[in-house]
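Lecture 7, part 2: worked example. A protein chain together with pyridoxal-5'-phosphate.
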Amino acid sequence: MMIPFSPPRIDKRVVDEVTAALLSGWITTGPRTKQFEKDITSYCGNKTTVAVNSWTMGMQVLLHWWGIGEGDEVILPAYTYCASANVIVHSGAKPVMVDINPDDFNISIEAVKKAITPKTKAIIAVDIAGYPCDYGSLLELVENSEVNSLFKPSNELQTKLGRIVLISDAAHSFGATQKGIRAGAMADISSFSFHAVKNLTTAEGGALCFNLPDIFNHDEIYKEFCTLILHGQNKDALAKTQKGNWRYDVEEPGFKCNMTDIQAAIGLIELERYQENLDRRKVIFEKYDTAFSNQKWAITPLHTSEDSISSYHLYQLRIANITESQRDQIIQAIFDKDVSVNVHFLPLPTLTAYKKRGYKMEDYPETWNKYHNEISLPVYFDLTDEQVQLVVKAVVDSVKSVIE
Ligand SMILES: Cc1ncc(COP(=O)(O)O)c(C=O)c1O
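Predicted complex, written out as structure tokens:
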């Protein structure tokens, strides 16, 4: 039987909570979604949270709200999933791609520094595989007086912040920490993904976690977002069902990307038992580390440092001294042994949509260096120790069959 890559943990507890939501008489945004938002806020330690139907739509609305559009630039790493850049394209702004660090898969602060221009409105830092970017240095950079002197705000919100906004693409990093601070509270605003393959899932879903300086009123931001993600309606469907409360207004056209209570029902259970999920993932990472430590060709991923601890989302193994095509052959051989693996990620400049827009792979050598020999291994709560050993054997045998 095939060992899957990242199946969701669906058991009786999840089924019971989803069933309860289905039978409750209210299945779209309602009490479970509100509870889920509160639980995320208290888990992450940020100021307010808005649940949405995906990372992508949350980020799209966020860029719109912040007033990012034509003529603006948003800096992001070339090494990320296409969603991180697609939302910038849809906002009308220009994605400014930069390279990553030699030691991890995250955005290079030096490269960000060089890419800042008077048009830069935001930085989207991506916590690849769940390992947090260096937010301390990124915040220092956007607050630096020289960098600040370039900043040209174009609306009230941007003027209020008075600098480039630091956004975290935390799609992978729910539960990660840096200097004791959890993902969701490391940047001005963070966006989580609760897609089916993520550490914490709601089938599809996401959350925007706001942690702007205190001059911003986070209760007001929460209210504004509840409206923005529901067509701009100043009352949600549940509020409208209350006696004498049917009339509503739309002051500005909004989007439609609210989370449903059916999704939140899964999320509530996932969050309640999230620590055991993280603990199991950590054990699996350590088992892989140990198993590959005596293989000369294995480059194991950084997941813990003095300041940061990963959420153990993806185990990004790399194979030294191979070509991209040898990596692909190894992947085929692993699949032939009934183990499902993956590649994270095809760098943005390799994708037709971004090639067409003039981005060139050769401009991001470290991104290529990390990508061309990378293989992501299965990591999930229900993966047994025995299966971990089967994965290791499949990888070792496959690498040997290609490079020896
Ligand atoms: C780094 C990164 N950002 C954003 C997304 C988009 O998330 P969603 O599918 O919830 O829109 C993903 C999804 O895989 C991702 O890996």
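Residues 54-56, 80-81, 83-84, 126, 169, 171-172, 193, 195, 206 surround pyridoxal-5'-phosphate (CB under 6 Å). The longest strand covers residues 120-126. Keep this in mind for problem set question 3.
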